[in-house]
Design a protein that fits this description.
About 20% of the residues lie in helices and about 25% in strands. It is α+β, with helices and mostly antiparallel strands. The longest helix has 15 residues. The protein is globular, with a radius of gyration of 24 Å.
């Protein structure tokens, strides 16, 4: 590994994280939420909407310096980025010397930062912007500089004294400390230690976790940091962006104000096509992701800046409701996502993964809109408006995205807030079609959450819980229209009958419209493969579900 390059994912695995990745390889987890399934968000009152800013790594690697950070901050101040909402100017790896001082403190590289981090922070602050810095929860940073493991409070005190506003905390060189069975603290424990150290300084410092999704940080990150990386590092290619989108899109229920899924930095302006750049910005905004530019801001083209500063798209990302968009449908590389917004509108993205132009269609009912004779559609890239009585359709170029804001009627039900996994609270597992069966009559069970198609359900405007899509769609069904406790819950061809209608209740239960009985994990079981049935509602945890 070159000293000027961050380790690849493979190299990180080689350092000891592979064991963790394998042991925790349950895939992406997205649950519906009646009550948010993630822990109470970190109480530092930061990142109530996803953070926006710049990070130097993708464009400059180890070649960070005070002059670079200052020139970038100045550019953001004058080119419209700051006015658009970007506020953090973040220093990544390689800012420090290879040795701590005699008192154990980190030392900014005097050649790179002649005014120190405090001098750089003062300049950034003078422009009305904020400064971020990078460290690592292991013994060294990814580029081989001193890590913070065992020095958390000392380092947090330094960051606070320097005027740092944001900490990106990586997870390299953590060999032997990723699992408690290896005799060391887990990633969660190490990140929690730094969280507490930052809090003890009394300075508000946004805490961005970066363990590349290996230890399922979405399941614990909300109480520890303001955001958490869900994947490995992105690069400036459509394939990389697409892979990361697929990994992140299924985690919607874990995101919310102060706590965000982070699919890594924006590669806009770094080599993808303008169409692909727009897709990344659209998808990241739809997924309520942090918008951290990783390009050469000072020399960015007008096209790059116009993408990064599109106020209509940014408003979706920064919407105060704090909902991450979810997939309404995904078939043949044609994706429809919907994101409910605070004023009752719904943001819709029509994303074409394929290389050729395609027509992508959905409906206002599918995105959760009802109650109006017509709806207004605003194209968030062109600004053009139109009306529809129900159909939503557009011709989308290859690798492109059409992003629409849908106004009118009321929101609720439908895919906009109801497509994802159905999480069994008592068991900590997900509603599951065994073996991905498509055979009518297959009884559902619970299993480890995986984000696979056999665990992704859509709560439709007709109160059905539908699994799969297109011609293969099946619905949750009370077997033989049963209304007695113990009736099997199966999949069956969707027919709209009352034994396929389900009410998602504010108390966490899901009840059959026909029977009035509760969706129930048999015998209050918690093991994978435990069957799901109807049972008299009793308020126990095996009848508690989270839907979103």
């Amino acid at each position: 590994m070159s000293p000027n390059s961050r380790p690849t994912t493979a190299q990180r695995l080689w350092r000891g994280v592979l064991a963790v990745a394998l042991s925790l390889a349950a895939g992406p987890l997205m649950v519906f939420s009646v009550a948010a399934p993630h822990a109470q968000a970190l109480g530092n009152n930061l990142a109530l909407t996803p953070q926006m800013g710049f990070n130097d790594w993708n464009a400059y690697g180890c070649n960070v310096s005070e002059s670079l950070i200052k020139s970038t901050a100045q550019a953001m101040h004058t080119d419209g980025m700051q006015a658009a909402g970007y506020q953090y100017v973040n220093i990544d790896d390689c800012w420090l010397t290879h040795n701590r001082d005699s008192s154990g403190h980190l030392v900014p590289d005097p050649a790179k930062f002649p005014d120190g981090i405090s001098g750089t922070a003062a300049y950034v602050h003078s422009l009305g912007l904020k400064l971020g810095i990078y460290e690592d929860a292991g013994t060294m940073t990814c580029a081989g500089f001193p890590g913070s493991l065992g020095h958390e409070q000392t380092d947090a005190n330094s960051f606070a004294a320097w005027g740092v506003d944001y900490l990106k905390y990586d997870n390299c060189y953590s060999d032997g400390v990723n699992q408690t069975s290896n005799g060391g603290p887990s990633a969660q424990s190490r990140y929690t230690t730094m969280r507490d150290a930052l809090a003890a300084t009394g300075r508000p410092i946004l805490f961005s976790l970066c363990d590349w999704g290996f230890q399922n940080p979405w399941t614990w990150g909300a109480g520890v940091g303001n955001s958490w990386r869900t994947t490995g590092d992105i690069n400036a290619s459509f394939g990389s962006m697409l892979s990361i989108f697929h990994s992140n899109v299924g985690l919607a229920s874990y995101a919310g104000p102060g706590a965000w899924n982070d699919p890594d930095m924006l590669e806009i302006g770094n080599g993808m096509s303008a169409t692909e750049d727009r897709s990344e910005f659209s998808l990241w905004s739809e997924m309520a992701a942090p918008l951290i530019s990783g390009t050469n801001v000072a020399n960015a083209s007008s096209t790059t800046l116009s993408t990064l500063t599109n106020s209509r798209v940014i408003a979706v990302d920064q919407d105060s409701l704090g909902k991450q968009g979810t997939e309404v449908s995904s078939s043949g590389g044609l994706d429809v996502l919907a994101k409910p917004l605070a004023n009752g509108d719904v943001s819709v993205t029509l994303f074409n993964e394929n290389s050729g132009t395609a027509t992508i269609s959905t409906s206002v009912a599918a995105i959760g809109k009802t109650g109006a004779s017509s709806y207004t559609l605003t194209d968030l890239w062109s600004g053009a408006t139109s009306t529809t009585t129900g159909a939503i359709s557009a011709s989308v170029p290859g690798h492109g995205t059409v992003m629409l804001r849908v106004a009118g009627g009321t929101s609720g039900g439908g895919g906009g807030s109801g497509a994802g996994e159905v999480h069994a609270v008592g068991a900590g597992k997900c509603l599951n079609v065994p073996n991905s069966s498509t055979t009518g009559g297959t009884q559902l069970d619970i299993n480890a959450c995986s984000g696979a198609a056999n665990q992704v359900f859509t709560h439709t405007a007709g109160n059905q819980l539908a699994v799969y899509s297109g011609s293969g769609q099946m619905c949750l069904d009370a077997n033989n229209q049963g209304t007695s406790p113990g009736t099997k819950v199966i999949i069956w061809s969707c027919n709209g009958q009352t034994n396929q209608q389900w009410l998602v209740n504010g108390n966490g239960t899901i009840t059959g419209v026909q029977s009035g009985l509760c969706l129930d994990v048999a015998g209050a079981g918690t093991a994978a493969g435990t069957l799901v049935q109807l049972w008299t509602c009793n308020g126990q945890s095996n009848q508690q579900w989270t839907l979103s």
